[in-house]
Write a structure and sequence with these properties.
It is a single chain. This protein has one helix at residues 3-11, and strands at 15-17, 22-24, 28-31, 36-39, 44-46, 61-64, 70-73, 78-80, 83-86, 89-92, 97-98, 103-105, 130-132, 137-138, 143-145, 149-150, 155-156, 161-162, 165-166, 170-173, 178-182. The relative contact order is 0.12. The chain has a single domain (3-182), classed as Hexapeptide repeat proteins (UDP N-Acetylglucosamine Acyltransferase, domain 1, 3 Solenoid). The chain has 1 helix and 21 strands. The chain is globular and about 45 Å long. The longest helix has 9 residues, at 3-11. It has an 8-stranded mixed β-sheet, with no helix packed on it. A 7-stranded parallel β-sheet has the order 1-4-7-10-13-16-19. By secondary structure, the chain is mainly β. This is Acetyltransferase.
Length: 184
């Protein structure tokens, strides 16, 4: 990782990195002044396709581009080629594994605008927070939508689209994601 980038990130107001946060190749950061991004101890943000077990289509991207938006990533996580976009908040616990090409976004981009659909292009969504609890494993190519809470220890199968309350200690998969197996 380029030392100059680390110095810029450490000096950026609203970006909090542990001194043991690791980057494999340069991720993309986009944060407005009133937003906050924090990454915990021993967490790896991997944007390097070389030596990763599947094809990674893009670098990691962390976007907190709305007033007061928060991205908070816990300790001992491994995040590969993932986009995390917070309109309000995306909170990821400790010991989480997030595989490549995953999209985690708490907003829809635009308001639904029914019945005024002609004006949809001029609207924005306000977001609905996402919480991913400790020890969660999210497989490759998943989409985690706003208003989702994924419980402790849960696995989300590759290619799943997730929205809503996902209980702890379970496996969910599909589009939309449904219960595959519970370990409680």
């Amino acid at each position: 990782m380029n030392n100059a980038l680390l110095i810029v990130l450490y000096k950026s107001k609203g970006i909090e990195l542990s001194n043991s946060t690791m980057f494999n190749k340069r991720p993309l950061f986009f944060k407005i002044k009133t937003a906050r991004i924090s990454i915990g101890r021993n967490t790896l943000i991997n944007s390097n396709n070389y030596n990763y077990h599947i094809n990674m289509h893009s670098k990691c991207k962390l976007m907190a581009d709305r007033y007061g938006a928060v991205i908070q990533i816990g300790d001992n996580c491994r995040i590969h080629g993932t986009c995390i976009h917070a309109y309000k908040s995306v909170v990821i616990g400790n010991n989480c594994l997030i595989a490549a090409n995953t999209q985690i976004i708490d907003g829809k981009g635009h308001a639904l605008s029914f019945p005024d659909v002609e004006n949809r292009i001029n609207t924005t969504d306000y977001g609905n927070p996402i919480v991913i609890e400790d020890n969660v494993w999210i497989g490759a190519n998943c989409i985690i939508l706003g208003g989702t809470k994924i419980g402790y220890g849960t696995i989300i199968s590759a290619g799943s689209v997730v929205k809503g309350e996902i209980p702890p200690m379970s496996i969910y998969g599909g589009n939309p994601a449904v219960l595959v197996k519970s370990y409680i």
